[in-house]
């Protein structure tokens, strides 16, 4: 009981940290003779978090950004490098609009173009542990998560294993996706007013839920990633938070018994969220099929690991008071937290 309450407390207090998708910056470089040219795009909100650019009124203006140009340039120079023999020049930055807001875009020239390029990217990790540096060098994309140097092979293509790892990582750090899945799985081991289910019945229901969720998010992942139909990031993130609210409330006041249908219907929204990861990578068309397959495999592997870890525990405790607390009080806490996310994602 105490452990369950502690988990609920952590969820509630951690809620603001997951109000938005993790921050990304984009470094794009292409070979131009004996040098590399491109740009670095950093979200304005991330620069403010790192350098405290706002004067305190809560509205970051162009005047404040323009006045902070030297500080931003020094910050980039101190945290972005290409080895001792590759000096970098920065040109005058400007604002650009990407899928999730305004970005500070700095033109760069790297004064070398060796076949193997060592890149040190250490921006923003100290203010956002989930930050990603998306490094695009020619047709290759590298994902930096911890500030350690990475190596780009000029002319190399994409590795499918990169996208498998990214899919696993995305589902594991996506607390909204995890809570949605957990809310669907919680009632699978026991239902009020009915005899406790056998292990076979539990397995069948879990299979239906996971299959419904997988099919749904795979459909929207594909149609969004290939550009057939896309939705604004703000709308998608808000709708995903609402889907968590709906799944949690359905555990408290049962409206739909067929949780596979809930998993499929609301899982369509989560597919749009997954696709934003691939869209942000800016993949060339020749790499898109491999990226889609690899990323989706990674998502399923990450999802399967959660199910395998959670289901035996739920099955063992299904007759205890702790399970009822987890089912009802836990679902209520998740609904409250996800409601807060909905507000934050829509307003902020």
Description:
The structure is a single chain. The chain contains 11 helices and 10 strands. The chain has 348 residues and is an alpha+beta fold. The protein has 2 domains: 134 residues, no CATH class; 187 residues. Strands 1, 2, 4, 5, 6, 8 and 9 form a 7-stranded mixed sheet that branches. A hairpin with a 2-residue loop joins strand 1 and strand 2. The protein is elongated. The two termini are 35 Å apart. About 3% of the residues have low confidence.
Write the layout of secondary structure elements.
Layout: H1 2-14, E1 24-32, E2 35-43, H2 44-51, H3 62-67, H4 69-79, E3 80-81, E4 88-90, E5 94-98, E6 101-110, E7 116-121, E8 132-137, E9 140-144, E10 150-153, H5 160-173, H6 175-185, H7 199-225, H8 233-252, H9 259-281, H10 288-317, H11 321-347
Number of strands: 10
By DSSP (H or I, 4+ residues per run), the number of helices equals: 11
**Amount of helix:** 40-55%
Beta-strand content bin: 15-25%
End-to-end separation in angstroms reads: 35 Å
| Main beta-sheet annotation | 7 strands, mixed
The geometry reads as elongated
The overall pLDDT, averaged over residues, is 84
H/E series: HEEHHHEEEEEEEEHHHHHHH
Radius of gyration: 22 Å
């Amino acid at each position: 009981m105490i452990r369950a309450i502690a988990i609920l407390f952590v969820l509630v207090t951690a809620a603001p940290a997951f109000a938005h998708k993790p921050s990304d910056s984009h470094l794009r470089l292409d070979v131009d003779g004996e040098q590399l040219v491109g740009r670095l795009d950093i979200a304005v909100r991330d620069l403010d978090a790192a350098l405290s650019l706002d004067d305190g009124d809560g509205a970051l203006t162009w005047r404040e950004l323009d006045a902070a140009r030297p500080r931003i340039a020094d910050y980039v120079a101190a945290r972005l490098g290409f080895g001792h023999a590759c000096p970098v020049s920065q040109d005058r930055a400007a604002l650009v609009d990407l899928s999730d807001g305004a970005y500070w875009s700095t033109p760069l020239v790297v004064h070398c173009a060796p076949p193997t390029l060592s890149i040190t990217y250490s921006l923003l990790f100290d203010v956002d542990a989930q930050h990603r540096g998306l490094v695009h060098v020619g047709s290759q994309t590298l994902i930096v998560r911890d500030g350690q140097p990475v190596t780009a092979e000029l002319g190399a293509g994409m590795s499918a294993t990169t996208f498998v790892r990214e899919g696993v990582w995305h589902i594991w750090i996506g607390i909204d996706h995890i809570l949605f899945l957990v809310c669907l799985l919680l009632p699978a081991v026991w239902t009020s007013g009915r005899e406790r289910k056998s292990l076979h019945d539990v397995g069948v229901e879990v299979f239906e839920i996971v299959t419904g969720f997988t099919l749904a998010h795979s459909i929207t992942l594909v149609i969004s990633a290939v550009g057939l139909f896309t939705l604004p990031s703000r709308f998608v993130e808000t709708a995903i938070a609402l889907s968590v609210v709906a799944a949690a409330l359905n555990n408290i006041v049962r409206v739909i018994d067929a949780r596979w249908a809930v998993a499929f219907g609301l899982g369509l929204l989560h597919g749009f969220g997954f696709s934003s990861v691939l869209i942000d990578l800016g993949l060339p068309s020749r790499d898109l099929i491999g990226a889609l397959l690899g990323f989706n495999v990674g998502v399923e592997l990450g999802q399967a690991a959660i199910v395998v870890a959670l289901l035996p525990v739920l099955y063992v405790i299904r007759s205890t008071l702790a399970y009822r607390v987890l089912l009802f009080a836990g679902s209520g806490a998740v609904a409250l937290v996800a409601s807060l996310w909905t507000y934050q994602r829509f307003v902020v």
